[in-house]
Amino acid sequence: MKYDFDTGIDRRHTDSLKWDVADGELPMWVADMDFPTAPEVQEAIRERAAHGVFGYCVVPDAWYAAYTDWWERRHNFFLEKDWLLFCTGVVPAISSIVRKLTTPAEKVLVQPPVYNIFYNSILNNGRQAVESPLRYDGENYSMDFDDLERRLADPQTTLMILCNPHNPVGKIWSRDELGQVGELCAKYHVLVLSDEIHCDLTEPGCGYVPFASVSAVCRDNSITCIAPTKAFNLAGIQTSAVAVPDAAVRHKVWRALNTDEIAEPNVFAATAAIAAFTRGGAWLDELREYIFRNKKLAADYIESEIPQLCAVPSQATYLMWLRCLTEQGTAADIADYIRSRTGLYLSAGAQYGSGGENFLRLNAACPRSVLEDGLHRLREGMTTYSAEVSSI
Question: CA-to-CA distance for 203 and 215, rounded, in angstroms?
């Protein structure tokens, strides 16, 4: 491989949210990677920093071209320049859209287990979160379209937040599934807000389907949040885009982002995104290969060494969704025990809504030696937890 993903980077004492933990602890929870971003992106940021003047910025034409060219080249979908709005992040965009395009006490639909911050964006703004849980057959996840239609038919439900690909279960939704979502939402006048931030982190050989690409119905009734931040590990740069094909909806979103003052880039936001999408393709391809080898290693290790857990198969994200097979205690109890016993810090599944109570989430985006350390700690924690609870 041309790029080095094996060399570890010490992130302690760098004001890292992920690594703000006690000495000896190993955080594998929040969704950021322990890899430096692509060298090409680092170079672009250094060049911009060397200029030395950091005044107010505008969004350049090159930013729009970077997005439209990338989506056409990598995802076979042409995003028109006029659809794109700059935003400081996907989560700020979601919260702003919930505030502007729904009214207090209206319902916003989500499909748990799902990214927990969706709930914050809904509840913190005085709206109701309505759940249409995914079906789980013991191995794979699917949408429950009968339940989804019942929820969407409620006149109080006015917005659906779609996670595509899905975090935390790692599901890539098919064109047919997305088409059914689009038809149902249009039928019941529910706008679709599609979070596609993980779209570039699919298994090598697997693409994802942009929701707005499925049909004219999906396109004209959708808002899509996209960014280079997950794929290129740029969350701290605060850069994203919102794609809104319908002009009337786009005006409302534009007003929302500007009212909340989240529509202006910092000096590195456009630079980093442009470099990622125009010069980072080869790095990303190698990253995807490395991550999915990590996930395969972890799944095989869990299957052979940790009988108390089962890894759910996934084709997207660098996150692993682990089912707890033991009936003794909750996943939250197990996560707390593992952290106190071994220092391994995982996410407990209950925070992701209904259906997550018996799951743990593990971040596999790290050097292989770090992942192996985490897996050994996981085995130790599960083994001693099982022994202790069985002796009670």
Answer: 25
